[in-house]
Q: What sequence folds into this?
């Protein structure tokens, strides 16, 4: 069994770390939020007082942070972890970040003899808890093979998208589509409800018709349609509006960079931006439904 440092114990990192513990690995964990660390120590992990302390004498480092600036801040610079991680250590960077950031950090790792892959995930918090995530990996094939045993304890599907940063490109394309389809699903359900349909009945119809998608099958945005979905828990937990907004921003940047057109992605980004500006940035992204729910005046 391996010694693993796990940094970033939020909605995704916490259940992922718990699955590694269940598999028998020895975990040293760190998060800026003490309560997040406590949840893991209660499950058998060892608490570290800092990220630096977490990575001392471990075989593997895993990070699951919000965005590029957090990842660059953690690994790069004079006080960054790459100054302290032993050469030969395997680093699995699982956050969703800009491909250029992933490449920059991977290059800095390579310069230090540290083996790093970008391994962003898909599958939501439900997938993280169940250990059925999809990992979308960028990096050297040999490093992916070294990481595979760990990834398999947290996920079910593992894809190699290409070299460093390629995992992030694929993940961004997926999430742009997810943002568009969650907004589209909300729009359709709100249209039906405004015309007198029961959203549950309409959801059942769509789930067996040509408009079906991940939201109608697993993550319905209408409260009460699916008991386990964030919509039925006041949109708590899940995947935050501001994280979706970040991913749609990454899609827009990637499009600019490659001179590609993403009109629906840009429209979705504006919808989530408006929704966030109305004070909903911390809710699950399926709360985009609120934008469509007409107020009776
Ligand atoms: P989250 O905000 O719930 O958790 C992030 C955690 O990182 C927080 O607990 C925060 O305190 C911690 N953190 C931030 N900076 C830190 C630092 N320097 N050192 C230690 N801890 C630090 O976010 P999440 O929902 O767990 O998402 C994490 C990543 O996974 C994001 O990049 C997100 O886009 C991606 N993602 C999320 C989902 C989802 O459904 N939530 C699905 C797929 C991918």
A:
């Amino acid at each position: 069994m391996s010694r693993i440092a796990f940094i970033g114990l939020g909605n995704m990192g916490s259940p992922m770390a718990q699955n590694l513990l269940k598999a028998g690995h020895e975990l040293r964990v760190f998060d800026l939020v003490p309560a997040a660390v406590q949840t893991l120590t209660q499950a058998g992990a060892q608490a570290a007082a800092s990220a630096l302390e977490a990575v001392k004498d471990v075989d593997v480092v895993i990070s699951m942070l919000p965005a590029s600036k957090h990842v660059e801040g953690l690994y790069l610079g004079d006080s960054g972890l790459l100054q302290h991680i032993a050469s030969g250590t395997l680093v699995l960077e699982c956050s969703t970040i800009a491909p250029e950031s992933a490449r920059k950090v991977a290059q800095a790792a390579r310069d230090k003899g540290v083996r790093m892959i970008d391994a962003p995930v898909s599958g939501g918090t439900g997938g993280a808890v169940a250990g059925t995530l999809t990992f979308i990996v960028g990096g050297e094939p040999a490093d992916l093979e070294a990481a595979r045993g760990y990834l398999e304890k947290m996920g079910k599907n593992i894809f190699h998208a290409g070299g460093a940063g390629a995992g992030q490109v694929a993940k961004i394309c997926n999430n742009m589509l997810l943002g568009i389809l969650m907004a589209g699903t909300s729009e359709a359900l709100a249209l039906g409800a405004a015309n007198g349909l029961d959203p549950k009945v309409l959801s059942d119809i769509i789930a067996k018709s040509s408009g079906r998608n991940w939201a109608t099958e697993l993550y319905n945005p209408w409260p009460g349609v699916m008991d386990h979905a964030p919509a039925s828990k006041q949109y708590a937990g899940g995947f935050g509006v501001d994280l979706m907004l970040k991913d749609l921003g990454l899609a827009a940047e990637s499009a600019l960079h490659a001179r590609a057109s993403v009109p629906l992605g840009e429209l979705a980004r504006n919808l989530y931006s408006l929704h966030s500006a109305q004070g909903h940035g911390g809710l699950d992204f399926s709360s985009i439904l609120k934008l469509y729910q007409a107020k009776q005046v």
About this structure: The two ends are 62 Å apart (CA to CA). The chain has two domains: 3-163, 169-291. The first strand starts at residue 3 and ends at 7.
